[in-house]
Structure formats: C-alpha cells, structure tokens
Amino acid sequence: MAAPFALVGVAVWLIVRLVLVAVRYPVTVLASVSAYWMYATWGLSPLVLALLSLVAGGFVWAGLDLPSFLRHVWYRVLTEWRRATIYVPQWRTVMRLSDLAKVQRGKEYRPRLRRVRSEGWRDRVRVRMIPAQSPEQWEARRENLAHSFNARSCRVRVLRPRLLELDFIHSDPLSRPVPVPALSVDESAVNLKKIVVGLTETGRAWTLRLLGSQLLVVGVPGAGKGSVLWSIVWQLAPAVRAGLVRLVGIDPKGGMELGQCPEAFDRVVYDNGPDAVALLEEIAAEVKERASRYRGVRRLWARSTGEPFTVLIVDELADLIAYQPDKQLRERASRAIQTITSQGRAPGYALVGLVQDPRKEVVSFRHLFSTRVALRLDEPQQVDMVLGDGVRQRGAAAHEISENTPGVAWLKTDGQREPERARAFHVTDADLVELGLYFTPATVHDFASKRTSGEGSAAA
Ligand SMILES: Nc1ncnc2c1ncn2[C@@H]1O[C@H](COP(=O)(O)OP(=O)(O)OP(=O)(O)O)[C@@H](O)[C@H]1O
C-alpha cells in the first residue's frame, strides 16, 4: 500500500532536483537540450554548423561590445563552470575540515551553498549559515577558504540574518591607473555629499562625502595620498572658482605637496610652526562663531547661506599634533583640530587630514573622522588603528595593497558595516599645471593700436 506513495515521493524529489539543476545551470541545460533536439530532428551536420555559427556570433559580439558580451554570456558560463567544478565538489570537505560544519547527536549541520555568481575578477558565493554560527567565525577562516577554493583572497559580507556572501577574489580590477575626467566648469554639478574621486572595484564611481563629514587619509610614503587629495581639489575646482567653496591648506613639508598648485587655495601655510597653528585657531574660531549664528536656525550648512563651505587640507597631520617639538604649539594645534572636527559639521567646515604614520596621537583623533581612508600600510595593526577594530577581518587588507598600485585604498564610513575598495584618480603633474591655469585669472592683452602695429610691421 505504501509503494504508490513512495513512488510519488521519489517522483516529486526527482522533479525538484531537476528544476534546481535547471535553475542553477540554465546555460548548460538550455544548450544541452537544444543540441539534443537539433541532433534528433536534423542530424549531426546542422548541429555542428549551428555550434560554429554560435561561436562566430560570440566573437563578433565580443568584438563589437566586450562588456555586454562578458556580462550576458561569458560570466554566466564561468559561473556555471566554477560552481560545477570548484564549489560543489569541494564544499562538503572544506566545510568539515575548516570546522564550519558541526555534528550534533549524529546529525550533521552543514552550511548550505546557495547562489554563485562569477564576475571574472571575483566569485560571489552565498551561504546560509547553520544555527548558532556567527559571521566572525567565517571571517576568522577567510584564508583557509580562499586557499581551498583556489582564490587569492576571500571577504565576508553579511546580507541578512544567517545569509552571508563570500567574495572569492581572483584578480585585481584596479590594477590600472584611473585617469582624471575633464575639468568641469559647472559649479552647480559639484555635490558636496558625493565628490567623485576615483573608481571602486565594482566599477562604480568612488565618492567621498565632505558636507557633514571629516576625512582622514592614511598611507605610507608613496601610497598615493596626493592622488586622493588632488582628486578632491580637482572635483571641487568649479565650486572653488565660483566662490562656493573655500580651500585652506597647511603643508608642513614646506610646500612639497600643496605647493604644486597654490592657486587653488584661499590661504596656505607651508610649515608646522606658529603660522600653521595660528591658521588652525583662526579656522576654529570661525567654526565657533558660525556655529553660534546657525544655532536654532539651521542644522547643516547649505549654499543658500551665501557663506562658502570651507575645506581645510592638512597634508601631514602628525607634524602638527605629534612631531612638533614645542609642547604648547602641539597642544594648541590639537585643541583647534578637535574643535574643527567635532563642531565643523553643521557650519560647513570639513577637515581633510593626511597622515603617513598612524601613531597613537593621531589615532586618538580617529573617532572624530567619520570617513577614514587607508591607502597602502605596512602592518595589519596599522589597518586596525586607522579603520577601526574588526574592519580588517571583514576583508579590508590595506597592508596587502601592492606597491605597484598607488592610489588603491580601503574606505570605511561610519554607519556602513562593509568597507569599500577603490582607486583614486591618477592626477599627474600635467593635470596639476592644468588645474593651476584653471584658477589663474585670464590675462587680457590690449590689441595693439593700428598705428603701433603698422610701425611694428614697418620695423619688421
Ligand atoms: N591614483 C594613482 N594612480 C596611479 N599612480 C599613482 C596614483 N597616486 C599616486 N601615484 C603614483 O605613485 C607615486 C607616489 O604618489 P604620491 O606622491 O601621491 O604618494 P604619497 O602617499 O603622497 O607620498 P608622500 O607621503 O611621500 O607624499 C607617484 O609616482 C604617483 O605618480
């Protein structure tokens, strides 16, 4: 009597499995079914002809529009190939050996492999965690997972409770420099909440928020801090020229950095002594004065105030608050910087602080910077010091950024769990000359009068 029920059960199970296979491997299933149908209807030669035409069509498509061919064809094929040859065959063993599967009272609890998507440079693999598991357990095994699945590295993202997405990285999409876009002349296009300073690894624009935010950029010498700094200035240029934004700079390295385009700045000081501290205190006093005027009137600076948004760029913050030998100056600088970072948000003051060496004195200010950018760093501890605890475990390995890719950085914004990897525009010396000319008022030469030019030509 039970036999018909068992048969129905087996049939339903088979159908579910077949549907799952069709959903997980649509290209393979469609290609195999169509090929079989063609072979059965017309025989072998038309099938071979159709296959050759398909391959030729693929080449033409790739030649005409490579990105769309990759997205719609190649990455789908790659997804199915990697799922079938890497993730499915090794999943169970890797889960068991890396202690991510658990056996309880004879029953095995094993994380479930869900959707796989290959994007060429990375595979996105969704995983359903077993009960009582936390993302930190996966983060602690990133290296094991990367090696097990033949990837260069692995990152862990939480999508929703119990659902994770693992990024298995195969190559670096940011290995090539990103050229700066053309200088804009339209100041209304400058969005202070989204200044585009480069490209993220997923191909989107890398944006930084200046309005209502303070920015800390840290990287060893040669990591490309200059490119982040000049990318910001490049994008702000139309607003600076129109008087909407005011740039103020302090370059304790004697003008090595900001001296490359002083025309962009309303005021600039090239040392870390009394002049620099006086400028910081002046800005801090302005912050307090504007804040008291805005109190109860507005919560955030807006263009309609008619007052310029001020961006203070300090090229080596540690020179002011750590290396300055005069204790009094050091303390005055620290107090002023604390005032600007903690109260500057509403009255329209943003501090962009660049640092080579994230020492204790600088890191104690870290919480005042809502956006933190870690370019190449030397040690893993420095990454924690800059981006905060636990961010490196989520994949932000700034100490692993290659020396050959200056400008590549990890970005952590307050309120956003996942760090982002991006590369700043490569602002060359020629670009800085162009930027300088952009700010230099045009010189108007009088046309020589007819008589003078006549004399000139006679003399010639
Ligand atoms: N985004 C970028 N893309 C490509 N190359 C870059 C980028 N940024 C910087 N570089 C190159 O890397 C080198 C070092 O850059 P940069 O001087 O900006 O580093 P830095 O961190 O400011 O160094 P320092 O602390 O010594 O001033 C330069 O040769 C520059 O051309």
TrEMBL record:
ATP binds at G219, V220, P221, G222, A223, G224, K225, G226. It comes from the Bacteria. SUPFAM superfamilies: P-loop containing nucleoside triphosphate hydrolases (SSF52540). One of its GO terms (molecular function) is ATP binding. Keywords: ATP-binding, Membrane, Nucleotide-binding, Transmembrane, Transmembrane helix. It comes from Umezawaea tangerina. This is S-DNA-T family DNA segregation ATPase FtsK/SpoIIIE. Residues 192-384 form the FtsK domain.
